[in-house]
Amino acid sequence: MTSVLVKDLTLKFGALTVLDNLNIDIPEGEFLVLLGASGCGKSTLLNCIAGLLDVTDGEIHINDRNVTWEEPSGRGIGMVFQSYALYPQMTVQGNLSFGLKNARMPKTEIQERVARAAKVLQIEPLLHRKPAALSGGQRQRVAIGRALVRDVDVFLFDEPLSNLDAKLRADLRVEIKRLHHSLKNTMIYVTHDQVEAMTLADRIAIMKGGIIQQLDTPTEIYNRPTNKYVAGFIGSPEINFFEGAVEGGGFVTGGERFALDGYSFQGAVSGGPAWLGIRPEHIVSGEAAASLPVTAEVTVDLVEPMGSDTLAWATFAGMPLRIRMDGQAAVGTGDRIKIGFDPARASLFDKTTEERL
Amino acid sequence: MTSVLVKDLTLKFGALTVLDNLNIDIPEGEFLVLLGASGCGKSTLLNCIAGLLDVTDGEIHINDRNVTWEEPSGRGIGMVFQSYALYPQMTVQGNLSFGLKNARMPKTEIQERVARAAKVLQIEPLLHRKPAALSGGQRQRVAIGRALVRDVDVFLFDEPLSNLDAKLRADLRVEIKRLHHSLKNTMIYVTHDQVEAMTLADRIAIMKGGIIQQLDTPTEIYNRPTNKYVAGFIGSPEINFFEGAVEGGGFVTGGERFALDGYSFQGAVSGGPAWLGIRPEHIVSGEAAASLPVTAEVTVDLVEPMGSDTLAWATFAGMPLRIRMDGQAAVGTGDRIKIGFDPARASLFDKTTEERL
Amino acid sequence: MWNSEARNVADAVTPRGPKPRPRFSRTNIMLYGTLIVVAAYYALPLYVMIVTSLKGMPEIRIGNIFAPPVEVTFQPWVKAWAEACTGINCDGLSRGFWNSVQILVPSVILSIAIASVNGYALANWRFRGSEVFFTILIVGAFIPYQVMLYPLVIILREMGLYGSIWGLVLVHTIFGMPILTLLFRNYFTSVPEELFKAARVDGAGFWGIYFRIMLPMSLPIFVVAIILQVTGIWNDFLFGVIYTKPADYPMTVQLNNIVNSVQGVKEYNVNMAATLLTGLVPLIIYFASGKLFVRGIAAGAVKG
Amino acid sequence: GELEVTHWWTSGGEAAAVSEFAKAFDATGNTWVDGAIAGSGGTARPIIISRILGGDPMGATQLNHGRQAEELIQAGLMTDLTELAEAEGWTDLVNPSSLLESCTYEGRIYCVPVNIHSWQWIWLSHDAFAQIDTAVPSDWNEFAAAAPKLEAAGIVPLAMGQQGWQQNGAFGVMTIAIAGLDAWSKVVIDKDADTARGPEYAAVFEAAVDARNFAANSNVQDWNLATNMVITGKAGGQIMGDWAQGEFQMAGQVAGEDYTCLPGLGVNEILDTGGDAFYFPVIDDEETKAAQMALASTLISPEVQVAFNLKKGSLPVRGDVDLTAANDCMQKGLDILNAGGIMPSGDMNLTADTQTQIEDLMAEFWTSDMSAADAQERYADIIASAD
Amino acid sequence: MSSSSNVRRPAGLFRNLSAKIASIPMVLTALVVFVGGTAWTVLYSFTSSKLLPKLNFVGLDQYERLWSTRRWLISIENLAVYGFFSMIFTLLIGFTLAALLDRKIRGEDVFRTIFLYPFALSFVVTGLAWQWILNPDLGVQSVVRSMGWESFTFNPLNDPDIVIYGILIAGLWQGTGLIMCIMLAGLRGIDQEIWKAARVDGIGTVKTYVRIVIPMMRPVFITALVLIASGIIKIYDLVVAQTNGGPGISSEVPAKYVINYMFRAQNLGQGFAASTMMLLSVVIILIPWAYLEFGGKKRG
Ligand SMILES: Nc1ncnc2c1ncn2[C@@H]1O[C@H](COP(=O)(O)OP(=O)(O)OP(=O)(O)O)[C@@H](O)[C@H]1O
Ligand SMILES: Nc1ncnc2c1ncn2[C@@H]1O[C@H](COP(=O)(O)OP(=O)(O)OP(=O)(O)O)[C@@H](O)[C@H]1O
Ligand SMILES: [Mg+2]
Ligand SMILES: [Mg+2]
């Protein structure tokens, strides 16, 4: 069953078109992540769904009800904000019950719901504190609780973790994932952190300039990015790109040429200028490299040890090449190493359209 | 040759002791990173070295000269700030040359130096723009340029990249590393980002509460953290800790017991309560696990795919366990998997002192 | 200068610990010297007023205005407060004081209530044209009052409020509106927008959000607004003269009348006592809320 | 009923006088609510007028009669007193009759004159002249001759409050004394600019330059402070209207003993017949109306006229009252009045606008070193454009 | 909670209705008082209204008369002198004091309190206090004379040539504290790292202020300037209390002229013409400011 349906949504701020004829269909219980660089319109889309912005054109349906002109509180959504947006002068209890009081719910039911939410989020001991007396993680939990008590069908999250430090972010990420597992609500989650997107999402929508570039599962997006932008956006360290051309089933770049055996083209194999993208972690170095379809020998320019891994920078076919190695790898600047990769794991993009070949 | 020497440095703000009897000796040409959580005193230490704060006690030597009472401009240092601190009403050229003009350097030499710095940093086309018309990365480069033109021996960086977005940060990180390779100046770099620290540093000083916890190479810090704090601070995903006890050359926890063969104790092997830390990436899963000294079978609670890797959460000996696996690993929630690790790669810490055993 | 001094010291001992700084360096002497002289200039008038108000007339005539009183007398204060005459009304400033209070309280409440709601609407509920009205309002703050004095007489007359205290309250509300609205708008704009969005998702409406969310959060700005308005309205002279009748004259106008309606010789001590009495309310407010006052002025002005 | 009465009589003598009105009015069973406005008429008038225009009129108010109230009357904002006046026969009582004429607009009477004020006086301090061992002068010329001596003794020869209306008043007095009544009426009544440019006026401006020099060290603003200088012997004399007498009286000084007054500067004994009048703004309330009529009647009643004018130092508006209690100066004034040495007041003939312009000119003239010729030229220009 | 499945788009006027209702006072003030009142006054400045406003147009007569009236010219001249010096000294003193206070001195609070307290006092109080201090017979002049310097003359309030400076002294005393506060806030708002960078570059304190900090504080200076300027044009109470325009008319100011003609001389048209001129001068000040504030931002 469709839980949230966005139909031909357009939103303009004056002359600036932020969202352009956008369509998404989110089935019930899905965890959808909106991912994109800053300013691409993620928050705007979320605010449109929540009813906090008036759409310029198009419709929004939630649970098969056209809510385009409905007030935010009448849409059956709950929203969690980046800055937590807790009411500073109210206790945690007050924060949780504010929305329910506004809806004139009976006192006993309010108490019941608050108690339930507090239990789920393990914030019972905090109920009588004010937000100022809470840590970042606790605040975030209260913010989630505020959506929880309202018993809504759809949760909207706008970068809920980006104000937290790395460690806490990792922990709360896991908690949100657990929450989704147990509640099974529809969740729409905005972030610009790809790790969050990859780990949390059932499906990811990658946005750029108000347009969805690719809407698919994390694995699919990681392995088969639909265009060059997506390929470059997803993955850290960044994917390596080589400019060249597809010629008779092989790829030619900077004097080198290698076969593309095993690469599954989208349509018919066509020649022409193209980009080849290969992820740093898909490049194998050392002895194991020899057994792969494409091999080469390169000189290491720079080594960045990161503890668990090591990132080596080399030059291949005149272009910089990142190679991810094991943290214990003993390479140094100036070493010559053997590398290899499997074209099946690479991605090819048309030079002009930048679409996947 | 010693480039920067900090001797018995103490700094108090009123009653608050921020730095407590601190000693560091930095050889010429070293890239030293000061790493620590917010508020641990990193910036304070840097400001003391720069002469921007009056020390409460102790001495600071730069190039074997006692500069404790010297003005910042007379210490032979250049400093790059988090907020760039560019003079907003001057052009890039003006920013670079202002300090030199002030030192009454001849015009031709000023021009020469500015041109050289601009070339090194590739900001020649920007020389006549004002800072407001530059992007974050360009501003950062100008800020570095301002230190560069002064031809100093020691560069001080105070979180120079933390105002930039992730992608740009990664790029500039590499540039700073390249700069160090070509200039070979002494550099002291403050950050709270461990990836920056690991990739840039010759040596890392990990600070907590104004005290240096460990001062060593990145590899050493990663592999042999000197205490539990350092072990937990460095590494992402976070290290797994198990509470237990060392008993007769083995480690006992939550009913499990395994041998510590291959672990090199700091001193004599002693029994007693202890923490065992093992990094998620040092836990091997699947068939390869069988060949390792310690093995077990665990159930996966949650899987976080991250593209290049996958992080699985399991429970071991009653405590949560993070396991880093390959990005292509096909595990799902509820799967039972075999794991194993080599105690030689683990770390043991005393329960009370939290020092490495 | 610094370096050479430092070098000299450095020759003698190894630098260690804080750099020795002479307590009375030339810079410090200049710095504190200037500050103290200027402070004396600023403090002098208050001192002179106080001293004069405690002297008797003969002492004033022969003495030096800076000299402390030989014989302290509170008679001038008593006279200024309760006996000084304007015409045949000899009840001193006390009447003006109560008039001022009667004008002040409703003016402050009304102007702040209206301006805060305006600022809130402008910050969070922008509608078509709201910015235009706001711009007019702000530009209006710079229009000389003189341009609007007469039209306001007509407006008040048409409303039947001319000459009554309520007329003056309205005038204060109108002329206080630009700066207060700006103050509140800036403040409410700085309240995270997400808070407002969260409240809307929680089903609170315009007034619900104002009373339940915004008001409790804006105590500091209210304090600032109250300080600004209390001092501003208390110190008003022009509107008090034009829009009220003598029976309702605020204290400043009364002060000017008492001081200028001389009978025989000028009683400087009474005048100074009267002057001090009039300045007392804003001074007390200012001394009591010193830091807030400063913060408020800075917040209201630097942002504007 | 209660009646709020506004006026600008706030100096010592004035306040004492006005209480006589209040007392008498209260005795009629009504209540006088005092609305004194400090400062000169210049400060008070705008307040009074704007209140009337603003729809919040007071029950009664002092205004100089003359053209000031013309527009208010035209706008129907002033109560018509004709009935009361006819009933009480004011036309026969008021002397000189010009006083009532200036209250009359298109045949109806709108105000009650309460006193006759004349500007044509100089007040001389016996104490000051005693200090320089000179006899108290008997006219302006003697005074001018004694001035240098006074100056040398550290006494300000002529006290002069530095406000336009005082300076203008003094100038007017000198005009009558030096240029004579004919020239004056040509200029002020007929607005004849040529006369204003003529030799008679030139002499006046020359004398004014002298007076300006005499007053150079007079560091006061208010007229009563200037009077006080005369009272205390710090100044030789002051040209000021007869209301100054109230100040001498308050200070317990006796005319002829402590001070001397010379009408018409001792040169040309004519008094103008300006004065104060009370107007009654229209108020739609029967009780108030009754109170207004009661007040109007009280103000002009013989006993009140005597009591008030004795305190105020001015002359009563009715010729049928007994003023044996009056002092030396007042007697002099009465004598001149009875001898018909009267002239109309400038107030009645010039609009407030023109008055203001002349006052501004005088203020500037007295506080700068403007030459007599320049001042005369500019004066004539104002007269030329007056309506 | 509304359950209708197809909610209509609410009509434009009623969207945000509460906000619109709540803004009525502001809208009325802006339109009726500020726009309407100003337009009314400008309109009637072209009439020959005397005591009562009447629409008998006389073209520019009132303005011609205005500009040939000595008193107006003196007022303008006074305003120019007062404005010029007040602007310069207020900025100079305000900034200097702020810079001194910003030097991490002891007792900052005490000094700041002393510099600022006059701002809490009304102009009437200020004027009277200074009238007393400048009183030639009993104030500063006589004190200095009694100390032996017999020929010392400092009597601005009774000397038509310098009376405006006497008012200036009082005005500065009252107003500089506020500007100091604003400047101090501006200084405090400057990124501390800029100071550090300047120190590392070896730039002296004074030079750092002049070359770096002051240019960075441009918006603060503009705010201060606008505040001072709008205060100068409105100056009225201070003059009334301190000299009441005297001696003679030598310390008259435009605001007083307006009120004088509107209410006392009973020539409304003249008063309106004068106030329109005041409005014009404000517009002349405001337009460059608005251009700097808003025009500049768009380009930057
Ligand atoms: N109220 C507004 N008026 C005008 N433009 C706006 C407004 N809000 C947002 N924008 C513009 O719309 C675009 C999209 O903004 P949005 O906040 O949706 O980005 P985002 O993807 O959420 O970015 P971030 O990751 O920084 O939060 C941006 O270019 C922004 O400048
Ligand atoms: N001027 C000061 N006065 C008093 N305490 C200060 C001052 N500056 C810093 N501190 C305190 O000193 C401690 C160390 O501050 P410091 O700025 O060195 O931290 P840091 O490690 O640089 O942190 P961050 O990563 O947040 O920049 C903090 O607890 C801070 O509160
Ligand atoms: Mg966003
Ligand atoms: Mg820091």
From TrEMBL, chains A, B:
SMART domains: AAA. GO terms for cellular component: ATP-binding cassette (ABC) transporter complex, substrate-binding subunit-containing. Residues 4-234 form the ABC transporter domain. InterPro entries: AAA+_ATPase, ABC_transporter-like_ATP-bd, ABC_transporter-like_CS, ABC_transpr_MalK-like, ABC_transpr_MalK/UgpC-like, Mo/tungstate-bd_C_term_dom, NA-bd_OB-fold, OB_MalK-like. One of its GO terms (molecular function) is ABC-type transporter activity. GO terms for biological process: carbohydrate transport. This is ABC transporter ATP-binding protein. It comes from Tateyamaria omphalii.
UniProtKB/TrEMBL annotation, chain C:
This is Sugar ABC transporter permease. It comes from the Bacteria. Keywords: Membrane, Transmembrane, Transmembrane helix, Transport. Pfam families: BPD_transp_1 (PF00528). Its main location: membrane. It comes from Tateyamaria omphalii. It is found in: Cell membrane. GO terms for biological process: transmembrane transport. The chain crosses the membrane at residues 29-50, 103-123, 132-153, 165-188, 209-234, 270-288. GO terms for cellular component: plasma membrane. It is a multi-pass membrane protein. PANTHER family: ABC TRANSPORTER PERMEASE PROTEIN, GLUCOSE IMPORT SYSTEM PERMEASE PROTEIN GLCU. InterPro entries: MetI-like, MetI-like_sf.
Automatic annotation (TrEMBL), chain E:
This is Sugar ABC transporter permease. GO terms for biological process: transmembrane transport. The chain crosses the membrane at residues 21-46, 79-101, 113-133, 162-187, 208-233, 272-292. The keyword Acyltransferase does not apply. PROSITE patterns: ABC_TM1 (PS50928). InterPro entries: ABC_transporter_permease, MetI-like, MetI-like_sf. The keyword ATP-binding does not apply. Belongs to the binding-protein-dependent transport system permease family. Residues 76-291 form the ABC transmembrane type-1 domain.
